[in-house]
Amino acid sequence: MNKKSSLDTNSQHSIDIKSYVYKILAYWKLFTVTIIIGFIIANFMNGFKEKKYSLDTTLSVKEENNPLFSTGTNIAFNWGGESNAIGTVKVILGSRTHNEKVVDSLQFYVSYLIDGKYRLEDVYGKTPFKVIVQKNKPQLYGKLIQVDAIAKDRVRLTTTFNESNINKLITYTDSESIKKSGNIYSEYVSTDLEYSGEFDTNESINIPFLNIYLNTKRDLVPGESYYIRFDSFDGTVASYKNIRVSDVGDGASILKLQLEGSNTNRIVDYLNASVAVLEKDKMQQKVAYAKNTKKYIDELFLKEADSLKKIETALRDFKEQNNTYDLSEEGTLIFDKITEYDRQRIDLENNIQNLDSLRNYVVNRKKYTSSIPVPAITEMPDGKISSQITNLIQKSVQRELFSEVAKDNHPEMIALDNEIKRIKQVLLENISTLRSKFSTALQKVDVLLNESESSLKVLPFIQQNLIKFQRNFEISEANYNYLKQKSYEAGTTIQATVSDIKVIDTAKDLNSGPIYPIPTFNYLVAFMLSVVLPLFYIIVVEVLDNKIHSVEEIENNYSIPVLGVVGRNNWKNNLAVFEKPKSTVAESFRALRSNIQFLFKSTSADSKSKTLILTSSVSGEGKTMISINMASVFALGGKKTVLVGMDLRKPKIFNDFELSNELGVVNYLINQNSIEEIIHKTQVPNLDLILAGPIPPNPSELLLSENTDRLIKRLQEEYDYVIIDTPPVGLVSDALELFKYSDAIIYVIRQNYSEKGMMKMIDDKYGNKEVNNVSYVLNDFSVSNKYGYGYGYGYGYGYGYGNYSSGYHENDKPKNIFSKLLSLIVPKK
């Protein structure tokens, strides 16, 4: 492997971080613009986006029972209470029914608005008045009603109607009615397109489309203006179902309620009202069974009191009529025995009756949340049944709550149904077993009671009747006292019931910032995007870039050496060396004049003429400009120089010297004029000029003629330097035919214009020794661009010249407007 191949391999596998840094820094204007635009957009979004706040309240959920009551009482009064209170409360807080109650209690379907910078802003809680809706009366639906303060206690209401004169009204009934029938809508036919009326505050406003009170919290300030709007009840409820309920800590019976919104006053009121409604409902649920039980007991108590009174009267009358008031000793023993068996029999019959009622309740009902399963006036003798009833009602309550947010095929609903089915099956088996036990015991008591009743026959008739009256009285009195005790317990339970819901932290606005938008985050995102997007653009540009940008790229990719560089010519024409001798461009040509001496071939001692041929790959690389100024720099150095325009296809030199192209090389080659006739004197001392002349139909054939040989030899005899401007070798072969006359060849490459693959042909010829004494000159060079300090990049070769063939082929196109706009994005080269 030769040295060049080694350099190519190294260049392909090495990464020059410094060069990439320079490339990125060259786009500093693009980064500056994108960052400024990004910050402007972020600032706008921070102001335009509606601010959202998040507040929370914390509460504990723990089942509280009064320890003063017996187990039987607690079971009777708490059937339907749940052990998994946390899960049930979570479902309740997210249920539609619960949120309907909250919205109804706060009348949140009324919107309070003012004109903001970007939109109507919610100012609930900040207005000097509050709208009290007269329920069951219609309100104008969905229309803005402007409220203008005209005095401290007087307002003007203004609104517009639909052009069709048919306007929708909505009636907000109580939450229970809404639950059954939904919102009630009607129509109001207006006669005008606008309404305006004045009203005193704190008075009833009753017009066909509006029925409200305006309760003021302070005196109005004349000039204040607000808007109110009546929205859909269901829509309002739906907007508040996004309340988040989460556990605080592991295993703790503490919940946190979070709600987001644009108005902190609304959030605070809604969270606190939600907890209050929850607490009220839970209290009502907790005492509902006790109330129903007390009602049932009181009904029985009244009946038993009336029965006891009648029995007591009958007993008293019997004693008076028979003049007997006490039982005999033998009668007392028999009475005590019968009374004890009666008590046992009543208890067993009541238990059997309660079990039968409970069984019918379990078998015949699908829901277990609306009524007491058995008359809860006795203690269940089996604690398993009581716990199973509690568990059954708990699961049923959970299912009812979940049914509002889930369908029957939901996995959790299916799991609850299976659990309820299992509990019912176990409960029915326990009821059957216990009833069988009570029935057997009742049979034994009946046998003993019959034996005791048979012993009554030995007593006198009056004693027998007295025992019967006394027996009925004892039974009735026992029931009376029992019911009286249970009624007292039920009433005390209702009064002493404590709430399972306790507020730990109420919702409160502590002036915390909004959770959205977050200004610092938006600015950070804007900065990141403002950097990333230009970087992505730069990467795409670099991937698609196939231009020559630096001397190092030429040296690392091609074998032909670089003679030098020529800076950017900003002068009005190409005579930079002559008209601007102190410019950097003129100095670069002087440097080329010094360097080119090493390229000239050795000539005979009697020949001092040197021929320099200039060519390039395509049009537009500055070959003509280099030719003119190389000729000028030799001429200004005191050498007799001639510049020959041999680019017969697209001559340009005549424009810079303000000459006509009617007479030139072509005229000589076709034997129309002599050499002397085609030579022009120029304003540059020691510099003569031969133009190309009229464009011929056969330029290649003319350049191959013997006249070309005679012309070059004649010029070499008369001039110290012959500078020949040829066509681009990448487009036509004319220049290759002229290489045989050269002592040195300059191949012009233009920075940021010439593509890497364009020089492959001339480089291959140089490698094959077909062309000698050739060097590259990098034209239009500037170190103030992103590649000024770059190194080799190892790009591949190609021949797709595209628009570079301007003037030499028929498909020439001028630079379009898209290219001009693109030049504003790409950094200055």
Automatic annotation (TrEMBL):
GO molecular function: ATP binding; identical protein binding; non-membrane spanning protein tyrosine kinase activity
Transmembrane portions of the chain: 20-42
Any single Gene Ontology cellular-component annotation: plasma membrane
Tagged with keyword Transport: yes
Keywords: ATP-binding, Kinase, Membrane, Nucleotide-binding, Sugar transport, Transferase, Transmembrane, Transmembrane helix, Transport, Tyrosine-protein kinase
Superkingdom to which the source organism belongs: Bacteria
Domain AAA: start-end pairs: 619-762
Record EC number: 2.7.10.2
Reaction(s) this enzyme catalyzes, per UniProt: L-tyrosyl-[protein] + ATP = O-phospho-L-tyrosyl-[protein] + ADP + H(+)
Similarity comment: Belongs to the etk/wzc family. Belongs to the CpsD/CapB family.
Protein's name in the database: non-specific protein-tyrosine kinase
Organism of origin: Polaribacter pacificus
Upper taxonomic lineage: Bacteria, Pseudomonadati, Bacteroidota, Flavobacteriia, Flavobacteriales
Gene that this sequence comes from: wzc
